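Pinned message: reference record for GH18 domain-containing protein
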Amino acid sequence: MKSHKTTTLFRSPKSDKGRFTLLCQELREAFEAEAKATGKERLLLTAAVAAGLWTIKGAYDIEGISKPLDWINVMTYDLHGTWESKTGHHTAMGPEGDKLTLPFAIWYWMNNRDTWEKPGIRNGMPANKIVLGLGTYGRAFGLANPANNGLDAARDYTFTPKGKYTGAEGFLAYFEICKLGLTVVHKNKAMAPYGYKGKTWVGYDDPASLIYKIDNIVKKNQLRGVMYWAIDLDDFSGAHCGQGKYPLMSAVKKYLTSGVQPTFPVTQPPLPGSTAAPPVVTTQAPQPTTPGGGGGGSGGCKAIGAWAGNANMDAWCVSNCAVGNCPASMCKC
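Predicted structure (tokens):
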């Protein structure tokens, strides 16, 4: 007989939906009165809100809160996780029509309805009041069968991966994920990377998938901007992933402020001194707009600097320089 962990959820009464709207309205009035009385700038009023359809429907009067709030931070992550019986990407962009995706969550907040038809009169949240939430972490599952390692694969309830530093089952920071040596799949129906190794399965975002979200949600809908959960889950020291400090947030910032896609490795290089094999990528990530330096790539490419003499990094340089991604600080051909 199987025994599964259960989670008890406590729901607030339905009347809280209207009370939250009233709270927002009263706070806005109080902030405006204070600004008028003191001559100081009015305090901003924002809210972090859910991305799941049924939570949105049950918790928010979208039209009612759209006026008093300056903007909302939509928590478009944790759409899937270990509370489910199969693997799923927590920041999925697809498939089309799936209501547990980032595009649908933003659509619903903008249009206040759960159909995909072109809107007539929108009674949702104005686009310039919507901030897209981005995750710098991954959601992990244990696989029931390591050979069945795609999306919607059955999970093993007796094993759930956890990070060395974060220590929470089913939750890993980006700086932990990049050291796992996963086989990474970029091309899939969720349109965001996932990786697997043995019984471990992790869905996460990398610089390329975050920029894809910026193009197809933030820029396409002219949203206000982005926010993150959380700063300390990116590679904040730059010591883990070989992509510099804060590689995820830096990539997004550079793209939003300059329109230039930052260069990043086609696969993540092993750390200096690491004996782990570099991760295998089953589909090639987007190419950088300009080569990072070095030659065109050949079997003679070698790792340099902190990676000099590392056989795994030599192999990484050979494979990546061959496709034009040859960072001068890492490889010499």
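Pinned by admin. Summary line: Helices lie at 15-38, 53-59, 62-66, 102-111, 174-177, 207-221, 247-258, 311-321.
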